[in-house]
Amino acid sequence: TKLFGLFFVLAMALSGCGKPYLSVLRPAGEVAQEQFNLMMLAVYIMIVVIIVVVIIFILAVFKFRRGKVGENFMPKQVSGNHKLEIIWTAFPILLLLILAIPTVTLTFKLADTKAMDKVDEKGKNKEMIVNVTANQYWWEFEYPNQQIVTSQDLVVPTDTKVYFRLHAADVKHSFWIPAVGGKMDTNVDNINKFYLIFDSKKAKDADNVFYGKCAELCGPSHALMDFKVKAMDKADFDTWVKDMQGVKKAVAATSDSAKEGEKVFKQSCIGCHAVTPTGKGAKGPNLTTFGERTRIAGVLEHNEENLKKWIKDPDSIKPGNKMTGQYKVSDSDIDALAAYLMERKVEN
Ligand code: CUA
Question: How far is the CA of 342 from the centre of ligand 1 (A)?
Fold first, then answer.
């Protein structure tokens, strides 16, 4: 039964059932769908090849078995048979062409990012662009046209070509949203460009949330380097942009403890982290919307207790992260900081 259970889980994983869109086999956007179709084309061709080869093999085994043809049987020799040679040369070429033509066509289509470099007379770009910076072990998303910066949460409009410029701050990472596309390297020395399309129906079905991962081994906490994708329709996205742009300063702290936390933050944290929507932190993630997140450091459940644990000893949670050892705060400071950070939101 254990084995059966394993098969069941595998079958579920492969068929991509269930709510979250986590798999390449369950595409949730045009780019992913086209890549999926290409993959299936290759699979179908391989199945045909396997069936033909296995049938010929079985026929040969039965037809020429020793009991039937005898000990010293020598089959008809086909060396130099032009007809056969033409068949077994032309047939694979045909199969390769059937594979190659759509593969090359799609590769060039998906690599076409010319539109993202075009600007109008005001120097404004009409396309939806996100500059992605990968860091050990978190993601920064900068919206150059909207002048917004977020970290860990990538917010995108659905049914729109979203162009990405990928860059890494420290070592090589890879940007991947399994259900939507990617697995494009983020490098330190160059910028990789590509685009993705987030399907509105699939997004709705997924409660507007997809999950992204780092797909390149980048250090001890590589496996924890996830991000969240909030895919919303154009109207909701525009509202989000307005909300973010409206919050020019950090939302004021309300409770006494949060006010105290703000002071501690300004002494100990502001050197690395930004708390305004337009601010790029010097070294760490932008925390403007920290209170709206669902994960702390991408790995812990989002609550004040876990936040305190994280601030107190980040290395025990995400080994190798760059926050460790950067600050010295007392336990009461940590309590205040946690209260302050949990209030960081842009809804109001
Ligand atoms: Cu970043 Cu793996």
Answer: 27
Cβ atoms of 259 and 300 closer than 8 Å: no
**pLDDT tens per residue across all 348 residues of the chain:** 666 666 666 655 555 555 668 888 899 999 999 999 999 999 999 999 999 999 999 999 998 888 888 888 888 888 889 999 999 999 999 999 999 999 999 999 999 999 888 888 777 778 999 999 999 999 999 999 998 899 899 999 999 999 999 999 999 999 999 999 989 999 999 999 999 999 999 999 989 999 999 999 999 999 999 999 999 999 999 999 988 887 655 566 778 888 899 999 998 898 889 888 777 767 888 898 898 888 888 888 999 999 999 999 999 999 888 888 888 889 999 999 999 999 888 764
How many angstroms separate the alpha carbon of residue 272 from the centre of ligand 1?
A: 20
The tokens for 158 are 């659905």
Separation of 7 CA from ligand 1 center, angstroms? 30
Q: Which two tokens stand for residue 269?
A: 């944290």
Residues with CB under 6 A from ligand 1: 134, 137, 173, 214, 216-218, 222, 225
Please report the atom of ligand 1 found closest to the CA of residue 136. 1
Residue 134 Cα: closest atom of ligand 1: 1
DSSP class of residue 287?
-
Domain residue limits, the chain = 19-62+85-115+124-246, 256-342
Separation of alpha carbons 27 and 10, rounded Å = 18
- CATH number of the domain located at residue range(s) 19-62+85-115+124-246 in this protein: 2.60.40.420
DSSP string over 298-333? TTEESSHHHHHHHHH-HHHHSTT-TTTTS----HHH
CATH topology of 19-62+85-115+124-246 equal to that of 256-342? yes
Q: Ligand 1 center to residue 61 CA distance, Å? A: 51
Can you tell me which atom of ligand 1 is nearest the CA of 225? 1
Distance 339 CA to ligand 1 centre (A): 30
- Considering only the top CATH level, what class is 256-342? mainly beta
Pairing of strands 153-157, 161-168: unpaired
Residue nearest to atom 1 of ligand 1 (CA): 173
